Amino acid sequence: MSTLVGRWCKSFGIHKETTFRELKAEQSKINYVIGVNVQRGTGLYSCTTFITLTPRFQLYNRSTHRLEFAQKCDIKEMKKTSSDKVIIALPGCNFPFHWPNCEQEPLLCVRVAGEDFSHWSSGLPVNEAKSLYINVRNELGEMIFLRLEVILHGGTYLLHFTDASTLPPPIRIDNYSEVPIYFYQKGIESQWRTTAKPQSSLAYVLDDPIGPQSLLLEAPGGNFIEYSINKSGATKSITYANFIYIAFKETFQIVPSDCDNKNKGIEGQQLVLGVKDKRVIITKKCTGDRSQLWLMNSYGQLEHEGSSPPTEYSKSTHQTPRLVLDLEKPPNPTDYTKLVVRPQNNQRVTTQTWRFENGRLMCHANMCVQAANGVYGLQPGFDAVVGRMETSSRASNSEHVPFEQSIEIQKLRPGSGHLEVMNKMDGPIKSIQIHDVKFNSDEIILAPDPMWNHASVFNKGLTNNKNLPILDELMIKLTLSKGVGVSIVTRSPCEELAYITLENIIVDIILLPFAKSIDLQVRDLQIDNQLLEAQCPIVLHTWKSNTENSDQESLILRAKLLPSPNKNAVIFENFSFDIKPCTVVIEEKFILKTALFLGYKKHTQRHEKLPDNHIYHKYENPFSKNAKRFYFESCLIGSTQVRLSVLTAPKLSTELVEIKKSLGLTLIKFEDAIIEFDKFSDRHHFETLEVYAKALKAHYINQLKWHAAAILGSVDFLGNPLGFANDLSEGVSGLIFEGSVKSLVKNVTHGISNSTAKLTETLSDSLGRVVLDEHDNETRQKILEVAHPTSGGHLAAGLKGFGFGLLGGVTSIVRHTYVGAQSDGLPGFFSGLGKGIVGTVTKPLIGVLDLASETATAVRETSRGSHHYLPDRKRLPRCVTGAPGGLLPFYSYRQSKGQQYLYIINRRNFGEKLIFYEPNLCNDKEAQLRLLVSTEYVRIFSRCEEDPAIMFECHLSEVLSCHPITTNTTISNKVLPSYYIEISTNVPKITRPRVRCQTEDIAERASRCINYAKAVYDERELSVATF
Asked: In terms of C-beta density within 10 A (0-12 exposed, 13-18 middle, 19 or more buried), how is residue 239 classed?
């Protein structure tokens, strides 16, 4: 065994990339192409770089045939090649492939093994991602169709061969004419000429996918044209010589059989005009005999085909003399004149011009072609003459024309001889339609291809009538003025993620036997961020203006679906989606929780267990045999303008941090970056949804890259200079066009305050992350949280932050020195002393920056223009707890309002959940009380919106039970009942407090809910394990 000495390949980087390298052996043509995929790991392997080496090409045979593969350079003949250069693939197998000869063109050929006299296909390019059909022929020219999908995954091209019959054909020849049409691809041997039968459809695949994209169409007689299949709507004409027989009509009334050939009579003679030695005689019709064929030219002359050498009809020239029907001598009305053929002569135009009229062949006004000696002259070999018209004879037909004068035209080929070729898209199929100009093709039903049947939009006869609906037409019009709301609730943790609102919806649905269409219009679209800790309550909302276009729809969706008998093909005639300019606010925590809701955590955990998850482990079966493919004759997503903002989270949970790492997500905080998205359009592609999704993703990523300058100019750490420029521009425009000085001042104030607030906030946050410890930083963030984003609220938060900074600076040295000495002894004492000295200076500075930031924010809120305002939530976040059995409760505004009060009272402690809220516990002149029962406390507070005053608060561990009590009170000699709830507690000072209720029903309901909350609390505390 000889040992091959290899050579080192070129070096490659270990950064994230996908490439390939060629490995060659000395003194050999063997070439191994290796795919190289370099990528970073995820999860536990986020610090690991994986370098995966795979074969460059991997073949998958998912067809029902046994296939053979070979490089094109190794195929010497269409049927024969060296057996050691052929690779055999059984159905269902896959294997790596390397080029046997790296010095030749890398083209792959395939044929069907076991098929009688199967030929090799043309060379197939497999070094780029694409999909194409393959035409494999046998010795008889019969076609076997395969489909090849080439997908680049990592560093490997996956070549997937399937049966093409599961999808519509790429080309279909629809022959509406009455004659057969022959065709083959330009540049391919004419032996692969294929016949399209009259009035039938034939599926076709180009023999050479990378060859000329045009067909040579040949009509009977040898006339042909070249027709491009890529020019949709292009029209060309092709003609064929449609010769005629000049027949005696009455001799064709009976078709004689062999048994009665001797007694066939006049009606079965089948006599026509023929030529012998330039004499026109009556002869028996013989199909294919050129001496009997005539052609009427544009001058009314009858050209004799047999007197001229055979030529192609389209190439016939006037250089070759054509003999025409003529009289032997000048006509004599009292005698017969024999017929001959002579060259065309303009001086004999009166005797060489003929016309078919009233069942006769006429020359002059009252002279016609007939058999000499009347009926007795209707015999083969007798002369044909021109004589006077006769209306009486021994034998006449129903039109009183004598048998010997009754002449008709019989065509050698059916049709008019003039065909029109047109290319139309029938869904994903290129339909090459051939029509006769004299016939209406809409009335013709084509015979379908028995090997590959697919319905035609243009020929309704191909559709299976059994699948048609009972109703011919159904129109549905739906109007929802209040719209539809969609609530997205996560299971773990249980919370409402988003609420999607679509208002003023108009839907028009039309169902026809051959089409289904939908027209969806939405006037108002809004997506709310329903997270309780959301920084911004809105994710997306469309702009509303007071102009003439204020009634413009926010969202328009139009689609028209065409029928397809193939379950793997979904065909759209058109698909369009338009959205009005909108504002999008992307919050980091919202994105991460959405990824968690979509199951991304499970996906990453599954792959973290497989550190060697290279291409074959993850994609052992990378293709679906029956994957649906979608065709769009026209797909359009309209252009729009988006005002984009991104908000980063100051702190994330451990779970969200892991998801962020696995996503590789890095966000920069910016606000109001105006991005103009161009339209996305696609036409005449037939691909899977995954391919369309990748194209759509690439389009919008490129759009964001094009607007990188707008995003950079809106970042917070630069003070949003682009936002300041926009505010200044709007103020100057208001001053110039509206004469509004107020608008100028307001916009300039907003721009300056906005930039100041963002700069100071960025500085204080950055300094806080460096100087403050985790506890101080969390305390600072809670102080700066504004429950009600008003000017007063921001000023109050700024003052609190300033006070916190001053207090931290005063106590910094003592605190850090003490903590350091307590934890690390003498070294900790000195390190703590250093931290304290630094904190003494920086903490007050942070407080000053917080005060400046919140003050500027307060000014910004007062000067905010209408285009900067965000709408309120359509509804408060859903309360997901409180239903028995842990089920998801119906949405209740009362419970949502109670949840809002709960997190105001407990200072946004989201670990505490609401169980029950009673807004009308007691509502009279003496007291206005509300009841709030959570998983931790029972609270009774007064009705104050911003700062509820707590009248009673008791932890559930201190509650023993609750009972409704009814007492009678005498007022003005009237005994009136009073209703209370009595809460039994183990608190020493107040053991049985009573709270008055409005009605008995309220008292019973309140006591029942308090007892339920107490039972839930005890069950949770006494549980051995928490699930």
From this structure: middle
pLDDT-wise least confident of 379-393, 501-515, 595-609, 719-733: 595-609
CB 111 within 8 A of CB 117: no
Q: How many C-beta atoms lie closer than 10 Å to residue 808's C-beta?
A: 22
Gap between the Cα atoms of 522 and 508, Å rounded: 12
Tell me the per-residue pLDDT of 488-498, one tens digit each, with 9 for 90 and over: 999 878 899 99
Residue 381 tokens read as: 């070999």
Asked if 456 and 433 touch (Cβ cutoff 8 Å), the reply is no
Asked if pLDDT for residue 331 goes beyond 80, the answer is yes
How is residue 25 annotated by DSSP?
B
Query: Whole-model pTM?
Result: 0.75
Q: Mapped to the 3 state alphabet, what secondary structure does 703-750 carry?
A: HHHHCHHHHHCCEHHHCCHHHHHHHHHHHHHHHHHCCCHHHHHHHHHH
CB 342 within 8 A of CB 326: yes
Q: Output Rg (C-alpha) for the chain, integer angstroms.
A: 45
Please give the pLDDT value at position 258. 46
Two tokens, residue 887:
């089920």
Give the range among 15-19, 176-180, 636-640 with minimum mean pLDDT.
15-19
Q: What is the mean pLDDT of the chain?
A: 82
Percent of residues, the chain, with pLDDT higher than 70: 88
pLDDT of residue 584: 93
Q: Which helix (H) or strand (E) holds 236?
A: strand 235-239
* CATH number of this structure's domain 893-1025, picked from the four choices 3.40.50.1010, 3.40.30.10, 3.30.1360.70, 2.30.29.30: 2.30.29.30
Which residues, listed in sequence order, are joined to residue 856 by a DSSP beta bridge? none
Asked whether the beta carbons of 393 and 402 are under 8 A apart, the reply is yes
- What's the pLDDT score for residue 282? 92
Backbone angles phi, psi at 381, to 5 degrees: 95, -15
Q: 244-254+266-411 with 893-1025: one CATH topology?
A: no
Query: How many alpha carbons fall within 13 Å on the CB side of residue 984?
Result: 8
Phi-psi region of 775 (alpha: psi -120 to 50; beta: other; left: phi over 0): alpha
Q: How far is CA 225 from the centre of its chain?
A: 38
**d(Cα 192, Cα 124) in Å, to the nearest integer?**
18
**Which CA distances in Å does 262 have to 254, 257, 268?**
13, 10, 10
883 burial type by CB count under 10 A (0-12 exposed, 13-18 middle, 19+ buried): middle
- The residue with greater pLDDT, 616 or 47, is 47
State how far the Cα of 767 lies from the Cα of 850, in Å rounded to an integer.
11
Non-local (6+) Cβ contacts of 758 within 8 A are: 671, 716, 717, 719, 720
How many other C-beta atoms lie within 10 A of the C-beta of residue 736?
10
Break the chain into its structural domains and give their ranges: 20-163, 171-240+417-463, 244-254+266-411, 474-601+627-688, 893-1025
The whole-number pLDDT of residue 618 equals: 42
Q: Are 712 and 721 in contact (CB under 8 A)?
A: no
Fold of 244-254+266-411: Trefoil (Acidic Fibroblast Growth Factor, subunit A) (2.80.10)
Predicted confidence (pLDDT) per residue in 853-907, tens digit: 888 888 877 777 666 678 889 999 999 887 766 788 889 999 999 998 998 888 8
Q: Two tokens at 769? A: 């992350």
With a pLDDT cut of 90, the percent of the chain lying above it is: 25
DSSP code per residue over 625-648: TT--EEEESSEEE--EEEEEEEE-
Question: Per-residue pLDDT averaged across 414-420, rounded?
Answer: 86
- Between the alpha carbon of residue 338 and those of residues 283, 385, 388, the distances in Å are 15, 4, 13
pLDDT score of 1027: 46
Spatial neighbors of 770 by CB under 8 A, at least 6 apart, are none
Is pLDDT at 505 greater than 60 in this prediction?
yes
Are 291 and 306 in contact, with CB atoms under 8 Å apart?
Answer: yes
CA 921 to chain centre: 55
- Residue 28 DSSP SS3: coil
